[in-house]
Amino acid sequence: MYEVDEYTVSLLHFEDELKDETGKVWTAVNGAAVSNIKNKFGESSMYFNGARQSIQTPASESFVFGTSDFTIDFYLNWSGEILGSLGASTLFGQNPGSACNVRISIFPGGILKLYCNNDAPILYESPVNTIIANVWTHVALVRNDNAFLVFIDGKLIKSVEYKLSLPAINYPWEIGDEENADCGYKGYIDEFRISNVARWTSNFNPETPQNPREQALLRITMNDSSEREYRLSTKEIEKFIKWYDRTVGTGNTCYVFDDIVDLSREYISFDKIISFKVVPLKD
Question: Are 143 and 149 in contact (CB under 8 A)?
Fold first, then answer.
């Protein structure tokens, strides 16, 4: 099972009912419930019977990605049935009917479709039998810069270049059927996660939790000869270097390091830095 890290926006193991490891509150709709009949990890998973069942969480700032990177990934075990009157089964989405943000759906024949930005365009439509009934399948939708990447069981099957800003919509995010459409999903979902980073950009093993960015040690020498050390993702180090290389007299005079363990913050003043060194680390 995955664990919460600094990139995790939402994580549901479905081991303790609808507990979200990030503290968000999810509510069951039309009797949707955790089941111990099938599971990918642990002892239970989320079950939907196809009769307009879903779980929902309110819209919040942490779900507003705009043009930023993100990852939505989960395991599903589909019954093979499409019960909704609209001929599709929604796995996840935010769709008030007029301004679709993101939607992931299954169509007859195990066809997977992914939508963004009011359904236009369809980011991806898979071949028949991409999703096999009664088999656990890992699905991941990743945005890395302007590329939308689709992974099935860790294999990159589609990359689409598409520039868009995902809108902030004051409407719940839903796993399972959409409130405004009859798109009931019948089957199980396990290990559902949303992240504010592109966790994968190439083929991977979904059952091996991976750091979304290689880490390195940033060692900063201060003007009093003391040293500061920070274990950071390479993405965060690149951000620091970009700040440091700014034109003198512009930008922020301090850089803030967030400690993900005790949630403290440390401020480093630009004029106190003599030099710094980046030391590669292995996970």
Answer: yes
